[in-house]
Design goal:
Mean pLDDT: 90
Radius of gyration: 14 Å
Helix content: over 70%
Number of domains: 1
Distance between the termini: 34 Å
Largest sheet: none
Order of helices and strands: HHHHHH
Strand content: under 5%
Shape: elongated
């Protein structure tokens, strides 16, 4: 899989995760006592970043064996490149 293809898949994951933001925020609001979340937007930001990093690794694992450290760094770099967009979509 090329790096461009991987990035496109990660962007799809990010977009899908971002679409769930309103539902996550509602869920956190309804269960604030159980979840003990102080900043719902930061919590959702962590969920979105975690989903993107995790799915990037899962995509590569499905293509070949366990991703190498270099593969994981590529995934991280791709996700980190999109952090400003992710934060804007969550916090604005």
């Amino acid at each position: 899989m090329s790096e461009d293809q991987l990035e496109q898949l990660i962007i799809q994951v990010i977009n899908g995760a971002v679409c769930t933001i309103p539902a996550y925020l509602d869920e956190i609001k309804e269960n604030k006592q159980v979840l003990k979340v102080e900043n719902a937007q930061e919590f959702v930001y962590g969920i979105v970043i975690g989903m993107a990093l995790g799915m990037g690794g899962a995509i590569l694992s499905a293509q070949k064996e366990t991703p190498t450290e270099e593969d994981q760094m590529k995934i991280r770099d791709i996700v980190y490149k999109h952090i400003p967009e992710i934060r804007e979509r969550i916090f604005n």
